[in-house]
Amino acid sequence: MARNSCARLSHQLPRFTRSLCHRRNLATASTGKKEGDISSVFVSLSGEAPPPLPSRFSGIKTDLVAGHEERLTASWHRLLRALEEEVEIISGRGSSVIPSIQFQDLNSNLADFHTDLRHRGVAVVKNVIPPSEARAYKDEAERYVKDNPSTKGFPADHPAVFELYWSPPQMKARAHPNMLSAQRLLMNAWHSKDPEALISTSSPLAYADRLRIRQPGDSSFALGPHVDGGSVERWERNGYGMLGVYDKIFQGNWEEYDAWESSSRLPVVSDLYEGAGACSMFRMFQGWLSMSRTGPGEGTLQVNPMIKLTTAYTLLRPFFRSIRPFEIDISSQPSKQYLAASNWELEPEFSSTLQGANLGNSQEYSEAQHPHLNLQKTMVHVPMVEPGDYVVWHCDAIHAVDKVHNGKGDSSVMYIPACPLTESNAAYLSRQRDTFLSGNPGPDFPGGKGESEHIGRPTLEDLKRYADSTGLQAMGLERWSGEPGSRGELNMFSVANNTLGFIDT
Question: What does the DSSP 8-state code read for residue 440?
């Protein structure tokens, strides 16, 4: 499929610019990143101690809060009180705090569902894909792996997460009309304060990520609490600070921070250090599609459903230090005296420490470094899921995976985030389209030959058999048109068509 793929594509899609293909060299479609697996993304999985952050981060912290230190301290105290109250609510309700809705009811109950989603930052949409179809996806994935024994995964001896991006079931699931419809409705929970912003939430894009088939008893794929989309970049002006995504928090007004405003995130650079798994695409929601029946404790997802509070705490924690040393009570929890607001003060001279953040890695969390989050109580399991259920969580939401799979059946999912059409996402899609044609991992992922020699890897012709126009658009294989909802969306269609090499007619 990789050989002469540009010529074949431009012949089959006549609106695709031939000159774009002439500028390409598919021999370099591989990302250039070294080969690896999901352990490349997380310090906790790598087994290596991270080096200290460069001293310049002390200056970054100073610049962020200079002139409003007292306001920041007052906001920290308010945040600790709010967290204490919310921790009790979540520890009492558990998984029931997570909103859940049937796919068929999503459109008619969208306003109420969006309210719950915005509050918690996580949700389950049931029956997005018919259960029999979703179960068949897993069987097809297993056959694909069997037919291609060179497939890499983590851990290497008994893989749970496979370095697969272009398998037949993954391509079918991303292009499924129900999946694209669900993503569109979910992304409408976001809003833009700028009507001219170059963004379209009505045009979901495909982001080629991995799949997981985790067997009972597995304890190797134990991702602790973390947030993706970079780490130190959240404090850097040339990262998330380009249009001040978190400025309200740094100014001491975390209550006014809007986690669902999209326009300020458009210029964000979340992968300044080109980590092995850093995500350079704006994912409004991370998500996965279940291919198995999986309950709490059975190798499934845990989430922290306090999106505004956890984001504020993550960003403010590095500015404060405890007065008395870390101590735990008889229940192995941080003591009340240690957690008390009176025990915390602004660092007299800001250190370069950003708890849990390391260059080129995801943001990670621990009880010792983030004690007020009370992770043992607030990391709750998603409810029981069936094949075809779609679980989503806000791009800043803390999430984790069961340390041990205590179930009796496999816990199997495809990672499928919800991504809007933006200028940077269209640019990524153009590069990702090349890797689809060549069979290499997507630009964000560890390099190597990937599936370029895999038997049964879908071709463009295969994709066109089960993807409609929206599915082809999501892959960057058909131009955007139609009635836009705003001037910014109209302009975004034009920008995307130009970026992807389509000629306006």
Answer: P
Which is it for strands 122-126 and 100-102: parallel, antiparallel or unpaired? parallel
Contact yes or no for 479/497 (Cβ under 8 A): yes
What's phi and psi for 123, nearest 5 deg? -160, 160
Q: Which two tokens stand for residue 309?
A: 């509070």
- With 0-12 CB in 10 A as exposed, 13-18 as middle and 19+ as buried, what is 25? exposed
Cis peptide leading into residue 51 (ω within 30°): no
Name the residue type at position 82: A
Q: Cα–Cα–Cα angle for 205, 207, 213, nearest 5°?
A: 135
Q: Which sign does the torsion angle of CA 301, 306, 312, 317 carry?
A: negative
CB 244 within 8 A of CB 224: no
List phi, psi (to 5°) of 161. -115, 120
Q: Is 318 helix (H, G, I), strand (E, B) or coil?
A: helix
Give me the chain's average pLDDT, please.
Answer: 90
Q: How many CB atoms lie within 10 A of CB 188?
A: 14
What does DSSP say about strands 399-401 and 363-364: parallel, antiparallel, or unpaired? unpaired
Q: Which of 373, 355, 370, 368 is nearest to 306 (CA)?
A: 373
How far apart, in whole angstroms, are the C-alpha atoms of residue 452 and residue 440?
6
Lowest mean pLDDT among 178-192, 210-224, 230-244, 385-399: 210-224
pTM summary value:
0.91
List all residues 6 or more positions away from 152 whose beta carbon is below 8 Å from its beta carbon.
Answer: 35, 37, 159, 162, 163, 448
Query: What's phi and psi for 200, nearest 5 deg?
Result: -135, 110
Both tokens of 459, joined, read: 């071709």
User: Which amino acid is present at 203?
Assistant: S
pLDDT, tens digit (0-9, with 9 covering 90-100), for 84-141: 999 999 999 999 999 999 999 999 999 999 999 999 999 999 999 999 999 999 999 9
